[in-house]
Amino acid sequence: MIGGQPQCWIELGKNEWKIYISLVAVSLFFVPAVIIALCYTIIVHTIWSKSKAMTFSSSSSTANTKSKSTKNKSTSDPNHKRQTNNSNDNNKYADTDNDFKRASSRGIIPKAKIKTVKMTFVIVFVFIMCWSPYFVWDLLQVWGAIPVSQTTIAISTFIQSLAPLNSAANPFIYFFFSTHFCRNVR
After folding, report:
1. Does the pTM of the predicted model rise above 0.70?
2. Which positions, given as ranges, span the membrane (predicted)?
C-alpha cells in the first residue's frame, strides 16, 4: 500500500530481473525486428527479381514480335490473315506483347510498388529507432552498465517516452506516403 492505495508490484531478485528484462527484450524487440527485416528483405528481393524477369521477357517478346511480323510479311498471299484468337502460338505472343506494353507503360517496377517498399523501410526504421533505445537502455541498466544517478533517471524518462512515439509516428508515415499528399507537395 502506498498512500492508502493498493499497488501491484513484481518482486524479483537481481538475477531474476536480468533474466526477465533480457527475455522481454528478446521476445518483444529483437525477434520481431529480425522477422520484420527478413520479411521486407524477401519482399524487396521478390520485387527486384520480378522486375528483372519482366525486363528479360520484354526483350525476348520484342524479338519474337519482330520475327513474327517478318514471318507474316513474307507470305505471298495478299489476303493472308493472322489468327490471333484460335492459335496457341499467337496467344503466347499476344500475352508477352501485353506484358511488355504493361511493363513499358508503367516502367519496369511500378511506382506503387516502389512507394510501398519505401514506406515499409521507413516504418521498420522508425520502429527500430523508437524501440531500440528503450530496450538497450533497460538491458544496460539491469546488467549494471549504467550507474544510478539523477542524470540517468532523467535520460531514462526521456528514453521511455520514445517507445510510444512509434505508434504515434505511424499515421504520419502513412499520411506522408499517401498519393494525395505527395501530389500536393510536388
Report:
1. no
2. 19-44, 119-137, 157-177
